UniProtKB/TrEMBL annotation:
Organism classification: Bacteria, Candidatus Moduliflexota, Candidatus Vecturitrichia, Candidatus Vecturitrichales, Candidatus Vecturitrichaceae
Annotated signal peptide: none
GO cellular component: outer membrane-bounded periplasmic space
Gene3D superfamilies on file: Bacterial extracellular solute-binding protein, family 7
UniProt organism field: Vecturithrix granuli
Name used for this protein in its record: TRAP dicarboxylate transporter, DctP subunit
């Protein structure tokens, strides 16, 4: 599996390089300001996907669409980006799932821990009927159109000691995103969740404001968190998403042929980002080990200890925040995809 994903990743990077020939878009009919939150580096999957999208769309549209990429949160924090999509001041974004419940409450389901056993199951659920239902409901309620469920990787805990069981979390101040569902999860495990904005995380760890945090390999690299954390524990508590969105008023202002080009460009970016992120996740021991971290693997039984403590309390809480049918349908869709993959 690792070898296949590595070969896939190499292939998509080569494809991106071929697409990455600079274009001069003169007199474009439409401008897409595309905001994302990773550094403008080619080891950052979100940025690689954005560059591929830009070059595909500009080339295929014959210069009718110009795409300007704004990486590393240049256009503002997550809440500002979502507001910009609704107001029409920003056309597109690739944004992580954490802040989505602030505009669409059913998105709390995205924080249910240990819901997906593997990336193919997660992809099957959100590319299938459940994801389509989610997309349509969010569009109706917010005016934001989801074009693709991309990939933010599997989130794992890091600290300055190995976390082999939930008891190891007791007493630790663990940084979480500014998201209530993450607070509930860490509390259920016995840790002390401390919301800290992404841009302040490195300093908070360096100064001991918090003892640990949770993120995927890509984000560990992006923020150089390996410099201020010793152990990375592969508990895989959350399958995290990057979600490609467009303001619907802008999208519907495009002629149908240009809408198709945008959709195709997003699909290419999705495949690239999923391949790169999954490869990084599978090679966590190699990548972070080379950076000086000790990567701790857990047995299925050890992972189950974390799941038993955290999943049901988060599910119970989520059902107080949104229609419980969203949660019931999620687990139904997961079971269906699991069955399909066994055939």
């Amino acid at each position: 599996m690792q070898k296949k994903m590595l070969l896939w990743s190499i292939a998509v990077v080569m494809m991106t390089a071929m697409l990455g020939i600079p274009n001069m878009v003169m007199g474009a009919d439409f401008l897409i300001k595309f905001a994302h939150f990773q550094p403008a580096q080619m080891d950052q999957p979100q940025h690689v996907a954005a560059v591929a999208f830009k070059n595909f769309v500009e080339q295929q549209s014959g210069g009718k669409i110009q795409v300007d990429i704004y990486p590393a949160g240049q256009l503002g924090a997550e809440k500002e980006i979502l507001e910009g999509l609704r107001a029409g001041t920003i056309e597109m974004t690739n944004i992580h799932d954490g802040p989505i419940p602030t505009v669409f409450k059913p998105a709390v389901i995205l924080g249910i821990p240990y819901a997906f056993e593997s990336p193919p199951i997660a992809w099957g659920v959100m590319d299938g009927w459940y994801g389509q239902k989610f997309n349509e409901a969010m569009l109706k309620e917010t005016g934001i159109r989801i074009l693709a469920w991309s990939d933010n990787g599997v989130r794992n805990f890091s600290a300055n000691k190995p976390l082999k069981s939930p008891t190891d979390l007791k007493g630790l101040k663990m940084r979480v995103m500014v998201s209530e569902v993450y607070l509930k999860m860490v509390q259920a495990m016995g840790g002390n969740p401390t919301p800290i904005p992404w841009g302040e995380l490195y300093t908070a760890l360096q100064q001991g404001v918090v003892d640990g945090q949770e993120n995927g390999v890509t984000n560990m690299l992006a923020a150089k968190l390996y410099e201020v954390q010793k152990y990375y524990t592969l508990d895989g508590h959350i399958y995290s998403w990057h979600i490609v969105m467009v303001g619907n008023k802008f999208f519907e202002s495009l002629p149908p042929d240009l809408q198709v080009i945008v959709k195709k460009g997003v699909e290419i970016g999705k495949v690239i980002e999923r391949g790169l992120v999954t490869t990084q996740d599978l090679m966590a021991a190699n990548i972070l080990g080379d950076k000086g971290m000790d990567v701790v693997s857990l047995t299925p039984a050890e992972k189950d200890e974390f799941r038993k403590l955290s999943q049901q309390p988060v599910v119970d809480w989520a059902k107080t925040q949104t229609d419980p049918q969203w949660i019931d349908d999620l687990f139904k869709a997961i079971a269906e995809v699991q069955d399909q993959l066994k055939k």
